Amino acid sequence: MPATVIVGLQWGDEGKGKTTDFLAEQVAMVVRYQGGDNAGHTVQSGSEVFKLHLVPSGVLYPHISCVIGPGVVVNPDTLIRELDTLAARGIETAAVRVSRNSHVIMPYHLALDRAMEARLAGDAVGTTHRGIGPAYADRAWRVGVRMEDLLDSAVLREKLERLVPDRNSLLAAIGSEERFENDALVELAAGWGSRLTRHLADTTWLVQDALRRGDHVLLEGAQGTLLDLDHGSYPFVTSSNPIAGGACTGGGIGPLQVDEVIGVMKAYSTRVGAGPFPTELKDSIGEGIAGRGREVGTTTGRPRRVGWFDAVPLRYAVAVNSVSAIMLNKLDILSGIPELCLCVAYQIDGRRVESWPSSAELLARAQPIYETFPGWAEDLHGVRALADLPENARRYVSALEEHAGVPIVLVSVGPERTQTIERAYRPMRRRVTPTPVGLA
Ligand code: IMP
Predict the structure, then answer these.
(1) What is the fold, at CATH topology level, of the domain defined by 3-86+202-422?
(2) Residues within 6 Å of ligand 1 by CB
(3) What local confidence, expressed as pLDDT, does residue 426 receive?
C-alpha cells in the first residue's frame, strides 16, 4: 500500500481536506507534517460540520490513526479544545498521537507575532496571528519548548528562566506592552502536559511501523507550495515547508518511502494575507467567485483574495513537489462566467517569462498574459463523469492538465464527497516493502 503525500499547489485553501476525506476509506494513518493552527479545514460528516485546525480530519474515521508529526508547531490550547470538542460530539480521540518533538506555541509567540505584524504596518505579511513564525524561529534558534518539555516542570522552568526575560525584552523593543512571567507559564504548561501526556509519542516509529506493515499512510500538508518558506513567495510565506519534501522532514519518512504525491488545486486562485498575486481579480467576477466559493478564511474569517488560475506557478509546483496526480477542486464555482482567463506566462519588464520567478521583486512586477476560454452556464453539481461535463468545461480541464503535465485524476464539483469525478489512475509506483530481518 502506498505512502501518499497530499500537497497544496497554490497559496493554501485548495480543499486538501476533501482529498483526505475522499481517500479515507483506504487509509490507515493520516500524518500532519507541518504548520500549526494557522491552518483550518471544515469537514462535513453526514449532517455534522467540524472545524479543525490541528487534528487531522482523519480523526472522524474510527479506523484511521491520526498523527501530528515533529514538523508541526502545536498550540496546546487549540489541541485540547479540538480534542474536547470532538469527544463531546462522540468522536473517539484516544488514538490521536502528537510527536514529543513537535514544538509548542507559547503565549509569548502569539504576542510576538501580533507585535511584529503591528510594527510592519503597511508591509505586514498578514499572518494568522497564531504565533507560527516566532515558534519556528525559536525552534531554529534551538531555544524552543518541545511537547515533551510539558511533562517535566523542572526542565521547562530552567529553559524559561533563560528565555522569558529575552522574549519580554524583545516585546518591549518592538513596542508591545505584553509581558510574561515564568511561574504562570510553568503552571500553564504543566496543565497542558497532564491533559496531553497520553497523546504524546515518538511518532516517527509509529509512522515507520505503519509503513512496514504495509498500511496506507497519508501525509497531509497544510497551506500550499507558494507559501513554502524556501520555495514560496518569500517573505509573504508561512514559516514551514508545505511542499512534499516537508512530509519527509516533518513526518519522519525518507524520500524513497513516498509512492504518490497528490497535488491539490482549485479551478481558480485564492490568497489570504499580503504578497504579490499576479492574477488577482478586483472586479465583480472576482466577487462572484468569492461568494459562490465561500472564500473566507477558516482560521481568521478574513475574506480571501481571488484571481484567475495561474499556470506559471502550477508548472513550478508540479516540479518542486514531484506531483504524480492532481485533484482539481471547485470546478463548479466557475459555472456562469461567460469567458475564463488562464494565465500562461508573465510579462516582466517587457519580457515574456514562463517560469515562476524566485525573486519577490520580479514577481511583484509580473503582469499576467492570459489565454481565454469560453465558459459554460450549466450547473455541474450532478456531474460524475468527465464525459458528462459541458464541452467548454472539459476544454478548460484539459488545458490545466496540459500545463501541469500530470493527470488530473479527481475533479470536485461540489462540497459533498460524492460530488467528485473520479478517473481511473494507477499510483505512480508501488513499493515492495521488505520485512527487516528479525521482524518477520
Ligand atoms: P502565518 O502562517 O500565520 O505566519 O502566516 C503567513 C502567511 O501564510 C500569511 O499570508 C497567511 O495568510 C498565510 N497562511 C497561513 N496559513 C494559511 C492557510 O491555512 N491558508 C491560507 N493562507 C495561510
Answers:
(1) Adenylosuccinate Synthetase; Chain A, domain 3 (3.90.170)
(2) 11-13, 38-39, 125-128, 130, 132-133, 222-223, 227, 236, 238-239, 272-273
(3) 57
